[in-house]
Every structure is written in C-alpha cells, then in structure tokens.
Design a protein that fits this description.
CATH architecture of the largest domain: 2-Layer Sandwich
Order of helices and strands: HEEHEEEEH
Shape: flat
Number of domains: 2
Largest sheet: 6 strands, mixed
Oligomer: single chain
CATH topology of the largest domain: Double Stranded RNA Binding Domain
Radius of gyration: 32 Å
Length: 195
C-alpha cells in the first residue's frame, strides 16, 4: 500500500480473491440465517412437544381415568374386556388421560352392554341350489357414563349407543372389533363435544 493508504489498483489477479471473500461473508450470513431458522423451528417443535391434549375439553384437573368393567347383559363373555381395552387405549392416545385405579382416578368410565346380536345375514351367495350367507352383521348396544370423581358430577352420559360390524362367515371377532371401534369413537367424540 502507498503511504496515503489508498487501496491497490484492482487487477484480474485480485478480483477472484475479493469474490471469494464476498461469497464467504455471504455464506456466513446465510449460515447464520439458517441456524436462526433452525433454532426457531426447534423452539417451536419443543414447545409443540410439550403441548398435549388435556382431555379435549375436560376440566383441567382431570388427568387420570379408571374404566370400570361394563355390566354384561349379553351372552358374549369376551365383550366387556374387549370394550374396556379399546376404551382405555383411546382415552390414553386421543385424550391424553393416564390409567389409574378407581380410588385414585379423577374420572370414572362405567357402563352396561345391553344388547349383542350376531349372525344377522347381510349378503347371500348367488348359487340357487345353496342359499348361504356370505356376509354377516352384528349389533352391539351400550350405555356409557363418565363421572368426575373430584366434583361428583356426570361429565357425559349416553344410553343406547348402537354400533354394527360386518364380517365374513366365521369371522365374528372381526365384526365385533368394528362395532367396538365405532362405540369407542362415539364415546370419545361425544365426550369431547359435551364437556
């Protein structure tokens, strides 16, 4: 450099160096912007992970639930257990409620299975010589009540929830599973909209 501190004249040899420096500075700025965006996204994701359903409109104190065995007025002994398990899974996964014993639970789910009709023919084979049903339907009817044990109030109740399931010959368990899924959906949706 000269004594008056003027920059040296630009030559072809020095231009690429200036470009590299400019690109590196721009890369740093871009890197900082990307890191900032990534940190903001991470903060949002972390906050989002902390957010969960507190019960879809449940009172804020309801965090645990006990599902009591349903009274069974039908001839299907496996039905109360299957319904109880499906309700437990749905209340945990869809409403964020934890399992608890009856004495420690904030809310109780109880009910009665009042009807179970199986082997209702739906479709028949096309063979004129042999009239057999190829599809069957079953129907389940339940009454359900959800009670807040802290306040003693009924949070949601519904009688006569009826659901059907279809199944192939000798596939009654599959039809029962469909009907139970429909009942559980009705309970969860009804409870969310009513609380």
């Amino acid at each position: 450099m000269s004594p008056d501190r003027t920059p040296p004249p630009r030559t072809r040899a020095t231009r690429p160096v200036e470009r590299v420096r400019a690109v590196r500075g721009g890369a740093r700025a871009g890197l900082h912007a990307r890191v900032g965006v990534a940190l903001a996204a991470l903060a949002c994701a972390a906050t989002g992970c902390l957010y969960g359903f507190a019960g879809g409109g449940l009172p804020p104190h309801v965090k645990t639930v006990a599902i009591l065995p349903f009274e069974n007025e039908t001839a299907a002994p496996e039905l109360p257990r299957e319904l109880q398990e499906a309700l437990r899974d749905a209340l945990r996964s869809r409403l964020g409620l934890r399992d608890a014993t009856e004495a420690r639970a904030h809310a109780l789910v109880r009910g009665k299975i009042s009807r179970y009709e199986a082997d209702i023919p739906v479709g028949f084979s096309a063979n004129d010589r042999q009239a057999t049903s190829v599809r069957r339907r079953l129907r389940v009817q339940v009454d359900v009540e959800i009670v807040d044990q802290v306040t003693g109030k009924t949070l949601w109740t519904r009688t006569g929830i009826t659901a059907e399931g279809e199944y192939a010959d000798r596939g009654e368990a599959q039809g029962r599973k469909q009907a139970i899924e429909r009942i559980v959906n009705d309970v969860i949706e009804g409870a969310q909209s009513q609380w």
